[in-house]
Specification:
By secondary structure, the chain is an all-alpha fold. The chain is built from four helices and no strands. The N and C termini lie close together (about 10 Å).
């Protein structure tokens, strides 16, 4: 279910994996995010730092996480 919400958010932004990285780095309790890549295609994940989720998108993800008890 969480992946469905991430995909919903990604429709207006980028890939679901970028949404996950972006969401985590916008949290006050996260000081840094380490992203490792093995090839150029995986380097696209670094684009997660080029934009920000809206407050509404963050709330959608937070609500789903809370609903799932994660």
């Amino acid at each position: 279910e969480l992946l469905k919400v991430m995909d919903q958010v990604a429709e207006s932004q980028k890939a679901g994996s970028q949404v996950a990285v972006n969401w985590s780095t916008q949290k006050d309790y996260v000081g840094t995010a380490l992203v490792g890549v093995r090839n150029e295609q995986e380097a696209e994940e670094l684009a997660a730092f080029d934009w920000e989720l809206t407050d509404q998108e963050i709330q959608l993800l937070d609500d789903e996480i809370k609903r799932l008890g994660i």
